[in-house]
Amino acid sequence: MDIARHYDEIVRCNRCGFCQTACPVFRSTGHESGVARGRLALLRALIEKHLSWDRELEGPLFDCLLCGACTANCFAAVPTPDLLIEARAEYQEKVGRKAVHRLLFEQLLPYPQRLHRVARAVALGKNSGLSQAARAIGLLRIFGRDLARAEEIVERFPRIPWRRQNPPGIYPGRGERLRIAYFVGCGVDILQQSAARASLRRLRRMGMSVAILDNGCCGLPAWSYGDLRAARRLAEKNLNLFAALNVDLIVTDCSSCASFLKKYPRLFAAGDPRRAAAEAAGAKVRDILELPDAPRPALKTAEKPPLRVTYHDPCHASRGQGLVAAPREQLKNLAGIEYVELPEADWCCGGAGSYAVSNYELSRRVLDRKTANLARTGADVVATACPACMIHLAYGIRVHGLNMQVRHISELVDKRGPPVAA
């Protein structure tokens, strides 16, 4: 990797500071090194040999949430998150990769069965209280400074992964035409299983058949940490799976997965056969937010007054895919729902995958701002479409004692409609 080849993009930054107004990290710290123009100045200094590659770069390069708010507010449209990914990749080559990342990206995420076994072990420790005891005596610190505190973010683990209960295979649907493949994200499979159940019911209403895939990780975690080789290997494995499918759509209920699956072509050079396969697969990928549910008689609801619902935009849905209006329209069309807009709805919640494991304090500051905005809505439920966001929002709600639930949008749509048109 060589960040120098992006020099012309980096110097497009005119240092105007508009990125400051939108950056959750800068608004939490006030440090110039934590905003796009500061990070771009760092990359320029590296290219111009004013700085050397060393471990002191880890903070400025890796504490960015990659939410994309800076680019959305940049007149020059400098793609700072993409440039930081390239810089992280060069950092991995010149400074070194962490052993925990090699374990995660090479030995666990490509293999669903291995990940399931680890998840069951974690569930045993979490649900029995063993992990809390380990945290109390400091044992978890061997895995990183912040893991001991971040361990409390997930309240409870389901004992059995969702795909152990719903084996991969083809399930009949009630639709007339569509053959749908359900790409099951790691977070939904292991943690957010009620979302998976609701999404499968929705897809079976839409499709003539639904194939639950035995897919591995989409590759986004590896990509985000700059391990581009691991991301390509994960993508290639999924592309081989997709090539064997005879389906019309590949649907996922994780906006992070959907966004990255659509971007698979960028992982491979022009002329690479894998790029053509990625383009063919990407044309079939849909975020479940893009698919309206099949109309049916709305179920009667007991809530009086109506359930008050707000919506948090996952970064990979709003800026990653441009899906802003669709989820709001879905929610507003449901029976027994009073929709209320969330202030700063498209601000990152601080979840960003495993961000809190290595940046717990900063993640909490970003989350506190989001939670304060949730409290202002007076909502009963906050809906979203990203498992990482769901986990982090639920943590913020618990910490701040809000009387609010977090639900995947599929859970609400599955339960409440939309109604049959008159």
Please give the share of residues in helix. Answer: 40-55%
Q: Hey, roughly how much beta strand do the residues contain?
A: 5-15%
Give the strand line-up of the largest sheet: 1-3-2-4-5
Q: How many DSSP E strands?
A: 9
Most strands sheet: 5 strands, mixed
CATH arch. level architecture of one domain? 3-Layer(aba) Sandwich
End-to-end separation:
59 Å
Question: What is the mean pLDDT?
Answer: 89
- Roughly how many Å is the radius of gyration? 21 Å
Structure, described:
With 422 residues, the chain is an alpha/beta fold. It is built from 24 helices and nine strands. Among the domains are: 92 residues, Fumarate Reductase Iron-sulfur Protein, Chain B, domain 2, CATH 1.10.1060.10; 110 residues, Rossmann fold. The protein has a five-stranded mixed beta sheet, with helices on both faces. A four-stranded parallel beta sheet has the order 7-6-8-9, with helices on both faces. Strand 8, helix 23 and strand 9 form a beta-alpha-beta unit. It starts with 6 loop residues before the first helix and ends in a 6-residue tail after the last helix.
